[in-house]
Amino acid sequence: KEIKDLNISLLNKDIPCIIVSVKKDRRDHIRDLHRKICSFAETDGIKMILYVDPVKDIHNLSSVIWKFLNYLDPYRDHIAFKKQMTDNSGADTAKFQACIGFDGTKKTKEYDGVDEEWPGVVISNNDTINRIDKKWDELGIGPFISSPSLKYKDQL
Length: 156
What we know:
Blueprint: E1 3-7, E2 17-22, H1 29-39, E3 48-52, H2 61-70, E4 78-86, E5 92-104, H3 109-112, H4 126-139, H5 149-152
């Protein structure tokens, strides 16, 4: 019931990663949820799970990943899970599978023990957005992507 939405679109691109939108409501919630999800046979082959706060559109990858990275400390916010694989008869094999989870949810003192106020989403100012937009083609990083900052400016 704590899972609000799921994005499996990366699986269609042969990237073994899913994104889970979750409403965190207790200490170690993401750690416990990751272990539970990874224990299901349906997640066999998944190598990474990204956990995010509930978002308007979990299928907008650039926006979700941008917000996810705002709340991630890879050193503290990773959860490793390893399980023994079974064969078709259900017997254990010598093979193991690992899946890493990353907690990209907003941190709080109550649920995460974070003493400092966790900053909100980083938003670029208009001057920065315009400068990047103007030189985007020169950067050689692919098709133009509108700044995610524009989506959050009205929410402040």
